[in-house]
Design goal:
The chain is 31% helix and 25% strand. The protein has 420 residues and is of the alpha/beta class. The strands form 6 sheets. Strands 22-23-1-24 form a 4-stranded mixed beta sheet. Helix 4 packs parallel to helix 6. The structure holds ligand EPZ. Ligand EPZ binds next to helix 1, helix 5, helix 6 and helix 12.
Length: 420
C-alpha cells in the first residue's frame, strides 16, 4: 500500500494542465465494442481505471494497445461474452460494456458490480431500459445475463438521471431496429461527448445535452479517431487546491463551461477567478466565505466535487450546509477531515460545516476516489504533517496528482506503507 506524507500550509503557485477526462475515456473505450473497425483514443490519462478497462476489453477478446496517451482498440469479434467478477468488482464502470455487447452481439454476461463505499449503486435502470429494447435479462449467481434476438427501438423514461445508464442505452440503441427516445437522460459533458463520437461512427443521435435524446438505429458503425475532452473534475480539484492554500494557480487545457456550477460557487465564496477561453486562474485568495451547495445532475453542482468543496468550506469564514442528493453515503471524508480539526456535523444527506481558521495535520485514511482528493486538499492547507493512507483510491481517477501539486510547490512525498 502507498500513502502520501504532506507538509501543509504553503500557498501553491504556478500553472498546471489537466489530463483527459476519466469519465469520458471509459465509455468511449467501451464504445469500441460496437464496431469491427479500429478505434483510436488520444489524450488518455494513465489511470488505474483505464488499465482495468484495457484488461476487461482484452478479456473479451478485443485487440488493445496503449502507448503513451494513445489507446487503439479493435473488436473484430469477441472470444468471450463474459465480464468477470474479478475485474468488475474493482471498477463499477465495467458495466459500460453491457450496452455495446447487447447492441452488437445480442448477448452479454456481466458480473453485478456490487456496491461501493459511496452507496449501493444499483443498475436496475440500465436493465429496465435494456428490457424495453427487447433484451431478456436474468440474474445468475451474481451475473447479469442479457440476450436478445434483435434490439428494437422504444421510448424509455429514466426514473432517475443515470450517467452510465444513459451511456449504456445510447450505445445499445445505436444498433437497434427503429427509433429510441430517451427521456430524463443525463446531460453530463461526458455523455454529450459519447453521443458526438457515436455520431462520427455513423450513429443517428439528436438531443444530447437536453433531457430527451432521439436515436435512430443503424445497421453497423465505423471506427473513430478522437481526442478525449479535459477532465472537469480534476480541473475543479486543482482550482480548489489553489483556493484552499491561498495561492495563485492557473489551470490550463480546461473547458470553463463544463465546470460553471463550481466556478460560480467559488466566486460566491469570495475566491477571485480569472476565466479565459481554455484556462481558469485562481488568484491569491483570501480566506473563503462559507457558501451552501447541493449536488445535482449536470449542469448542477457535481457530486464528484462535493468532497473537495467540503475541505474548502472547513476553513471558510462562517457555516455552510452541504447537501448530497446523488449518493446515499458520500460523506465518508467528513470523519477524516474531523481528525484534522474540521467542525462537521453530518445529518442524513446534509453536512453542516462550521469553518475554522486552520486545520492541523493528522494521519487519515482515504475511503474512495474523491474523498482521497478531499484529504489531499485539506493536508495542503493544514499546518504540520498529514499522512494519507490507501492512496490507491486517488490513483484510480487522477493522473499523478502528487506530481502536479509538487510542481505547484506542494510538499508531498509518496511512501510505502506495510500495514493494509
Ligand atoms: C457516474 O457514475 C460517474 N462514473 C460517477 O463518477 C459520478 O459520481 C456519477 O455518474 C454521478 O455523476 C462514471 O461516469 C464512470 P449514476 P454512475 O448512474 O453512472 C442511482 C467518480 O468519482 N442509480 O449517474 O454509476 C445511483 O445509485 C465517479 O469519477 C440507480 O438507482 O452514477 C445514484 O444514486 C464516482 N439505479 C444515482 O442514480 C441505476 O440503475 C446516480 O447514479 C443507476 C443509478
Amino acid at each position: 500500500m502507498e500513502a502520501f506524507l504532506i507538509h501543509g500550509g504553503k500557498p501553491l503557485r504556478g500553472k498546471v494542465t489537466v489530463s483527459g477526462a476519466k469519465n469520458s475515456v471509459l465509455p468511449l473505450m467501451a464504445a469500441a465494442l460496437l464496431t469491427p473497425e479500429p478505434c483510436v483514443l488520444e489524450g488518455v490519462p494513465r489511470l488505474r481505471d483505464v488499465s482495468t478497462m484495457v484488461s476487461l476489453l482484452k478479456a473479451l477478446g478485443a485487440q488493445v494497445t496503449w502507448k503513451g496517451e494513445r489507446i487503439t482498440i479493435q473488436a473484430a469479434g469477441l472470444s468471450s461474452m463474459e465480464a468477470p467478477y474479478e475485474l468488475v468488482k474493482t471498477m463499477r464502470a465495467s458495466i459500460l460494456v453491457l450496452g455495446p455487447m447487447v447492441g452488437r452481439f445480442c448477448k452479454a454476461k456481466i458480473s453485478l458490480p456490487g456496491g461501493c463505499a459511496i452507496g449501493v449503486r444499483p443498475i436496475d435502470l440500465h436493465l429496465k431500459a435494456l428490457e424495453r429494447l427487447g433484451t431478456r435479462v436474468t440474474l445468475e449467481e451474481g451475473y447479469v445475463v442479457a440476450t436478445c434476438n434483435m434490439l428494437h427501438g422504444n421510448t424509455i423514461y429514466f426514473d432517475k438521471v443515470t450517467v452510465t445508464g444513459t451511456e449504456n442505452i445510447l450505445m445499445a440503441s445505436s444498433l437497434a431496429k427503429g427509433e429510441t427516445i430517451l427521456e430524463n437522460c443525463a446531460k453530463e459533458p461526458e455523455v454529450q461527448e459519447l453521443a458526438q463520437v457515436l455520431r462520427c461512427m455513423g450513429a443517428s443521435i439528436e438531443g444530447e445535452g437536453t433531457d430527451t435524446m432521439h436515436i435512430r438505429g443503424v445497421k453497423g458503425l465505423k471506427g473513430y479517431h478522437h481526442r478525449v475532452m479535459p477532465d472537469r473534475i480534476e480541473a475543479a480539484t486543482l482550482l480548489i487546491a489553489g483556493a484552499i492554500t491561498g495561492g495563485d494557480v492557473r489551470v490550463e487545457g480546461v473547458i470553463p463551461h463544463h465546470l460553471e456550477a463550481v466556478t460560480q460557487k467559488l466566486k460566491e465564496a469570495g475566491i477571485k477567478l480569472n476565466i479565459e477561453d481554455r484556462a481558469i486562474e485562481v488568484k491569491g485568495s483570501c480566506r473563503p466565505k462559507a457558501v451552501d451547495i447541493t449536488t445535482l445532475p449536470y449542469p448542477g453542482f457535481p457530486t464528484d466535487v462535493q468532497a473537495q468543496f467540503m475541505a474548502l468550506m472547513s476553513i471558510a469564514h462562517g457555516t455552510s450546509v452541504i447537501t448530497e442528493m446523488i449518493f446515499e453515503n458520500r460523506f465518508l471524508h467528513a470523519a477524516e477531515l474531523q481528525r484534522m480539526g474540521a467542525q462537521i456535523k453530518v445529518e442524513g444527506n446534509k453536512a453542516v460545516v462550521e469553518g475554522i481558521e486552520t486545520l492541523k495535520g493528522a494521519p487519515v485514511m482515504a475511503t474512495d476516489l474523491r474523498a482521497s482528493a478531499s484529504l489531499v486538499l485539506a493536508g495542503l492547507a493544514a499546518k504540520g504533517e498529514s499522512r494519507i493512507s490507501r492512496i490507491y483510491h486517488l490513483d484510480r481517477g487522477y493522473e499523478r496528482l502528487d506530481r502536479k501539486l509538487i510542481a505547484l510547490g506542494a510538499k508531498i512525498e509518496r511512501i510505502k506503507e506495510d500495514w493494509p
